[in-house]
Amino acid sequence: MCTTLLQASTVHLSIEVNQPTSDQVSLKYQKDGNTDQLSIFRVTLGADQAASFQLDLSKATFVTLEYDRQTIDLFLEPNDDLQLQWSNNHLKSSLQFSGKGSQNNRILHQYSTQFGDLNQETYDGAYLKVLVDANEFHQSKSSTKSTYEQHLNQQFEKTTRFLNQHQSQLSSNLYQHLKANSLYHNATNRIAWSLAHPNESTKISLLPQQRLQDENMLSYSSYQNFLNAYALALHLPESLYKYKAHFAIYDKIETTFSGRVKYFLQAHLLKEVYNRSGDAELAFKHFQKFAANNPYSEYTDEVLAVYGGILSGTPDLAAPDFDMVDPNGKLIALSDYKGQVVYISFWASWCKPCIEGFKKSADIRQQLQDMGVVLLNVSIDKNDTAWESARIRHNPTGVNGLVLSLEDISKKYDISSIPLYHIVDKNGKFSYLTQNGQRNIIEEFRQLVER
Q1: Nearest 10 degrees: CA dihedral of 47, 49, 55, 61?
Q2: In what order do the strands lie in the sheet with 24-30?
Q3: Is the CB of residue 43 less than 8 Å from the CB of residue 62?
Q4: Measured between alpha carbons, how far apart are the two ends of the chain, in Å?
Q5: List of residues 6+ apart from 80 with CB closer than 8 A
Q6: Which helix (H) or strand (E) holds 95?
Q7: What pLDDT digit, counting tens, does each position of 76-110 carry?
């Protein structure tokens, strides 16, 4: 791997909206294709109904633009100077491009419109999420293997023909990305047939073995998505929803993959299990071997950042401070509560599991607050109006606040999914409950409070 430090270049992105239906525009992109860290920026349209962004990029990067609950993908290269214009809330249908980088993005928009995942749904099993084309997935359920495979072959031929026709108009970076996207999107849809027919003995053909793992593809989200799908398919016909199926899948990854791809997948699974369940048993069983054998230190660091002292041997790991604004507009910070036990709940107005969690644990949360635990409910909403509405409607017990910097909080706490919970002791250090199924949550918090 090349370790040369690349010089960042400024990318200018200008936006103009005719008769806007919202004054907020946001950008989101991965800081490193091999990690879950995101950079998120928001701007408010000015009186002239325009806004601009300046990004420092050292390499070609995909950026997701969001406006009025709609998203589009942009492709930005160092030194691009791209102008966007659209009308009302018709982001996709009225979008126009000009400036340096416009030709790339115009063709990308055509590609996304014709072949993009306009109707995606999530297939979720054993803590690995796979984005599948909803239409293709439902078709796979009612199709025979041969009929469905023939259909996918025809779709792949169409995308290949489109890319060949436009290759001379695209930068080499974008062409290679779309070529990989076409290949691995098609491969994921092939696996979808197996996911829809888990008890079938004959699996639909996948990629040739030599294309199964390629560490140069790890920066592509379509390849990462394919790897998740392939890892799940390895476990079939066993149930992906069986209790602790992720243990068997971790072992399948160990024996099927090698090199950077193997450690990327194992680190991803370790993080997803803990972020989404709080269960550290998988890591307790495998992390020491993972850390000892893994030559890619960034993956070990990512896992440690999620689990904190519970794995690193440093149980006094300090919880990073962060700022929020409360419902009265007052600035508050985690450090304001040093000397008290704090139970942090990261949530958002659009997160149904978060809201259900508040409802189901209402009695326990009230008991914790009564004994002196600070319940810090941290919203990562991009829109303060959405947060305020959800806060009033659901009224979660505790101190409620909206984060000031999504980028900062995502980096400090590696928020790759929510709900996400952390316990901070009186000294500002991360603390953890016991991992056995017989734990008494109220009693363990009481010990922290009285300690």
Answers
A1: 160
A2: 38-44, 24-30, 61-67, 70-76
A3: no
A4: 48
A5: 11, 12, 13, 99, 100, 101
A6: none
A7: 999 999 999 999 989 989 999 999 999 999 999 99
- Using alpha carbons, select from 61, 95, 99, 103 the residue that is nearest to residue 78: 61
Greatest CA separation found in the chain? Answer: 70
- Inform me whether the pLDDT recorded for 4 exceeds 50: no
- At residue 343, the 3 state secondary structure works out as strand
Contacts of 97 (CB under 8 A, 6+ apart): 82, 83, 84, 103, 105, 106, 109
HEC per residue, 245-300: HHHHHHHHHHHHCCHHHHHHHHHHHHHHHHHHHCCCHHHHHHHHHHHHHCCCHHHH
Segment 424-435 shows an average pLDDT of 78
The pLDDT tens digits for 111-167 are 988 886 556 778 888 889 888 887 778 878 888 888 888 888 898 999 999 999 999
Question: What single DSSP character describes residue 144?
Answer: -
Reported as type and span, the H/E element at residue 103 is helix 102-115
Residues in the chain, total: 451
Given CA atoms 167, 173, 176, 179 in this order, what sign does their dihedral have?
A: negative
Kindly report which listed range (116-120, 239-243, 294-298, 355-359) carries the lowest average pLDDT score: 116-120
Query: Which residue shows structure tokens 């919202």?
Result: 22
Q: Which CATH architecture has domain 9-101?
A: Sandwich (2.60)
Topology agreement, domain 9-101 and domain 323-450:
no
Question: Could you give the percent of the chain with pLDDT greater than 90?
Answer: 34
Structure tokens at 211: 């294309």
CA 101 – CA 304 distance, rounded (Å):
39
**Number of C-alpha atoms within 13 angstroms, CB side, residue 439?**
13
Q: What is the pLDDT of residue 31?
A: 60
CATH value of 323-450 in 3.50.50.60, 3.30.420.40, 3.40.50.1100, 3.40.30.10: 3.40.30.10
